[in-house]
């Protein structure tokens, strides 16, 4: 998946990463890493980063595109509050997403059943 973001803790030994990975280092006095993670995962940010592809049928993000991305940085205190609010919504959001997926699955099963009945002349 293009643009997948995660926080990686400090690594104490020599480590090798894929050439497709772009590391972002932040000043912890100015940027709360969890805030930047939420920002990078947002729909708007992902759209901006992947909008202009960069390859034949393959979206990619390069260092230049990433460096040109404007990032809104409120105070560190506000960044932490925003992350706490988003984290508070996570369980309910996941619950609703699961219900939505179940409904889509049930709808697909109903559609298949109705098509089967229609082609069998049972409708």
Summarize the structure in short.
The chain is mainly alpha-helical. The protein is built from four helices and no strands. 54% of the residues lie in helices and 0% in strands.
What is the approximate shape? elongated
Residue share in helices?
40-55%
Rounded radius of gyration (Å): 21 Å
Number of DSSP helical runs: 4
Low-pLDDT runs of 5+ residues are none
Q: What's the rounded overall pLDDT mean?
A: 87
- Please outline the major beta sheet: none
Which H/E pattern describes the elements?
HHHH
Describe this structure in words.
This protein has 123 residues and is mainly alpha-helical. It has 2 domains: 1-70, no CATH class; 74-123. It has 4 helices and no strands. It has helices spanning 33-41, 43-50, 63-67, 76-119. The protein is elongated and about 70 Å long.
SSE layout:
Elements: H1 33-41, H2 43-50, H3 63-67, H4 76-119
Features:
54% helix; mainly alpha; 123 residues; 2 domains
């Amino acid at each position: 998946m293009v643009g997948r973001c995660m926080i990686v803790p400090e690594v104490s030994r020599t480590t090798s990463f894929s050439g497709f990975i772009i590391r972002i280092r932040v000043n912890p006095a100015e940027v709360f890493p969890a805030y930047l993670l939420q920002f990078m995962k947002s729909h708007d940010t992902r759209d901006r980063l992947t909008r202009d592809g960069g390859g034949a049928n393959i979206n990619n993000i390069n260092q230049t595109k990433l460096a040109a991305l404007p990032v809104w940085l409120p105070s560190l205190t506000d960044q932490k509050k925003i992350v706490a609010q988003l984290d508070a919504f996570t369980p309910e959001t996941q619950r609703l997403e699961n219900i939505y997926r179940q409904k889509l699955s049930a709808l697909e099963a109903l559609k298949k059943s109705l098509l089967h009945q229609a082609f069998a002349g049972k409708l």
